[in-house]
Specification:
One of its GO terms (molecular function) is RNA polymerase binding. It comes from Acetomicrobium mobile (strain ATCC BAA-54 / DSM 13181 / JCM 12221 / NGA). The protein has 4 helices and 7 strands. The protein has about 160 residues and is an alpha/beta fold. The chain has a 5-stranded mixed β-sheet with strand order 5-4-3-7-6. It has a two-stranded parallel ribbon with strand order 1-2. The chain is elongated and about 70 Å long.
């Protein structure tokens, strides 16, 4: 029983788009990224003494960062469970829902898709469930008013619509 709970705790809920984006990044890093680092290392080695070779050390550092990102992406994708749109309950704000909010102070409407932190893309209206706004609205229903302590100050928001 505790084994099942541990496995469930390791699950990372993800939208289909988010999963595909991370998978594409992983494929690109494994091929193009590793190839580029290999070229940089080869070129740096040609400069001679590796102990005092700044280009070599910079390339090794870039390689370490690349491999760490690859490992992170592999781990995220191996734990991913894609959210099935047919299973999303639109009676409340949950991961994967599209939420239209009204900022009561600015009298403006905003629409966001609620995603996990790895899928966040504010420029494309995808905000993290862990963000101040995400935390304020998760589990709320249409008509609810919430207060979010965002980086630009306190925002009073009203939930207008919840969709898939």
């Amino acid at each position: 029983m505790s084994m099942q709970r541990t496995q469930h705790d390791d699950v990372i809920l993800m939208t289909k788009e988010g999963y595909q984006k991370l998978r594409a990044e992983l494929i690109k890093l494994r091929s193009d990224g590793r190839s580029e680092i290999s070229k940089q290392l080869e070129e740096a080695r040609s400069f001679g003494d590796l102990s005092e070779n700044a280009e070599y050390h910079a390339a090794k550092e870039a390689q370490a960062k690349l491999e760490a990102r690859i490992q992170f992406l592999e781990s995220q994708l191996s734990k991913a469970k894609i959210i099935d749109n047919d299973q999303i309950d639109t009676s409340q704000v949950t991961l994967g829902t599209k939420v239209t909010l009204k900022d009561l102070d600015l009298n403006k409407e905003f629409t966001y898709v609620i995603v996990n932190s790895e899928e966040t893309d504010p420029n494309n209206h995808r905000i993290s469930v862990s963000s101040p706004v995400g935390q304020a609205i998760i589990g709320k229903a249409v008509g609810d008013e919430v207060i979010a302590r965002a980086p630009r100050g306190i925002r009073r928001l009203k939930i207008l619509r919840i969709e898939i």
